[in-house]
Amino acid sequence: MSAAIHGGAPEGLRRDILTTLLPGFIGPVAPEWLLALLREGLGGVCLFATNVASAVQLVALSESLREANPLAVVAIDEEGGDVTRLFADRGAPYPGNAVLGRIDDVVLTRAIGRAVGDALAAAGCTMTFAPDADINSNPLNPVIGVRSFGATSELVARHTAAWIEGVQSAGIAASAKHFPGHGDTATDSHLALPVVDLPLERLRERELAPFRAAIEAGTRTIMTSHILLPHLDAEHPATLSPRILQGLLRGELGYEGVIVSDALDMAGASGVHGIPAAAVHALAAGCDLLCIGTGNTAEQMEEIVAAIEAAVASGRLPAERVTDAAGRVRALAAAPASGPVPAPGSGAATDAAASAAPTTLPDDLHARIAASFHVAPAALERLAGAGRFGTVVRIDTVANIAVGEVPWGPFALVAAPDRARPAPAWLTDAAVVPLDAANPLADPAGLAGPVLVVGKDLHRHPFAVDAIARLRAARDDVVTADLGWPSDDLGLADVATFGASRAVAEAFATVIDEALRAAPAEVS
Q1: CA-CA distance, 100 to 371, in Å (whole number)?
Q2: Helical ranges in 42-149 per DSSP H
Q3: pTM for the whole thing?
Q4: Mapping DSSP to helix (H, G, I), strand (E, B) and coil, where does residue 17 land?
Q5: Which of 42, 375, 388, 474 is a good FRET partner for 107, with 20 to 30 A between their CA atoms?
């Protein structure tokens, strides 16, 4: 009895191939081609900020996806800090990983993970590409930074485990990333192929520790990285390497969950091969669920399916590998991590999703965030009694693709005002002077004082380093604030917050306001 044929391949094979694919799309409504593929068995969809217009709209979108395929994985890149999709219009109401690592209370980290999970479940999502389990051991890292819990393996490991436990207790599958560790790089894999030239023993001691902790915590998925590790595989980045995925992750670490590729539209994965060929290599290497990227099309998806079908037909990719991957994805979708996920079409999540932030966070959260900041000795004394700023210098840099265009720091409090926590007067009443690489500082002595400089990762941007040096040389009423990952010597950061989410911004705004209002003897 002959099998049904679709495009020259058995229907069962096509369905298995589709189950391994996780595309993205543009806009708040799922296009018909995507719903049609979901009805055929497409594994799921990855949502991005362009897909989120409101809480109620997101619920309706999620329900439409799961009506087309009740086993669809509805994934989103929600880290709860600087990387946010649910709150891309105003900034996340949680402290990000670096702040949680500095507070170093796993109970709080678990609670934040649960709060993020509750918000995702209310929106109809089933998986988040979080937490970031990378150790940010390189302060020049352009893509990890404050997404990491810290710079040491023990710290990152215990908070990775706690965050996973929290988010999965809400029924949302976690995805510890970016295996086997993207922290010791100075290259963004969205744009190029980073090289981590570390021997296996060093990886075992440091980079792999958080992933071991994630596995012990029961993470449902692990996301790969598009980085080259010559001591493990000199030819293939981790996403495309059987030695790393099957030998190290499956074999040595004993991981049995779903292996998710990072987005295959990134240069680190498809820059040489193209996306269809990268999909074939990723499946062959051991990935089960392939994150394709965003802005995908029906034609692109058919090209990927055809490439995988051809690889199976030629023997380059065993059909059993595709079947195994599809089975793992279906098992992931069929069994929520823990706790209920709203059923498709139920509408039960709509009211809960309409609330922008969870209400179960500690009452003293902002105080604890503020206490985690680095404040240089006597830095805030320069503001005591001033009551206001004459100038706020905003250091504008190009956001990495992972973060995207999200309101950040105190500027988010102006861009997306909240009646409960209005934007600080010290910002709205000051002259805001934007600086970027094309528009450097012109006259540091001519600015009205006192002057607050606000930026992220200041040491990585020569124009910011130059502006701060010139300001400090010209006047003594300058305070600098780094809301990213500062240099190891903290030389450019009078205040370092280690994050720029809305929750961090609110705590920062309070610290500055109190300094401006304090009598000189009250500021330490």
Answers
A1: 11
A2: 55-68, 97-103, 106-122
A3: 0.91
A4: helix
A5: 375
Region 206-228 average pLDDT: 95
Residue appearing with tokens 């500021």: 523
- How far are the Cα atoms of 384, 446, 480, 497, 524 from residue 381, in angstroms, in the given order? 5, 22, 13, 18, 7
Q: Looking at 155-159, 441-445, 501-505, which range is the least confident one? A: 441-445
pLDDT score recorded for residue 359: 46
pLDDT of residue 350: 37
Which of the residues 190, 226, 281, 366 is marked catalytic? 190
CB–CB of 492/482 below 8 Å? Answer: yes
**Token pair listed for 464:** 């910011």
List the catalytic residue out of 77, 262, 265, 288.
Answer: 262
Supply the pLDDT for residue 166: 96
Q: What percent of the chain has pLDDT over 70?
A: 89
pLDDT at 489: 95
Instruction: Indicate if 281 belongs to the active site.
Output: no
Whole-angstrom distance, CA of residue 151 vs CA of residue 101:
9
Task: Let me know the angle formed at the C-alpha of 144 by 139 and 146, rounded to the nearest 5 degrees.
Answer: 75
d(CA 132, CA 45): 20
What are the φ and ψ backbone dihedral angles of 163, each rounded to 5 degrees? Answer: -65, -40
Cα(73)–Cα(414) distance, integer angstroms:
35
Eight-class DSSP state of 477:
-
227 pLDDT above the threshold of 60 = yes
Query: Residue 499 and residue 485: Cα distance in Å, rounded?
Result: 7
Beta-carbon contacts of 387 under 8 Å, excluding residues fewer than 6 positions away, are: 516, 517
| Amino acid 407: pLDDT | 93
CA distance readout (Å), 269 to 281, 299, 370, 445: 10, 20, 39, 48
As given in the structure block, the two tokens for residue 396 are 């504008």
Q: Which residues make Cβ contacts (< 8 Å) with residue 2, sequence separation at least 6?
A: none
Summarize the confidence of residues 369-384 as an average pLDDT: 94
- Out of 5-19, 118-132, 496-510, pick the least confident: 5-19
Tokens of 304: 């990927």
- DSSP for 245-303 reads IIIIIIIIS---SEEEEPPTTSHHHHTTT-HHHHHHHHHHHT-SEEE--SS--HHHHHH
Q: Is residue 339's pLDDT more than 70?
A: no
Q: Which of 116-125, 195-204, 236-245, 492-501 has the lowest mean pLDDT?
A: 195-204
What is the Cα 443 distance to its own chain's centre? Answer: 37
Helices (H), 69-185: 97-103, 106-122, 153-168
262 is catalytic: yes
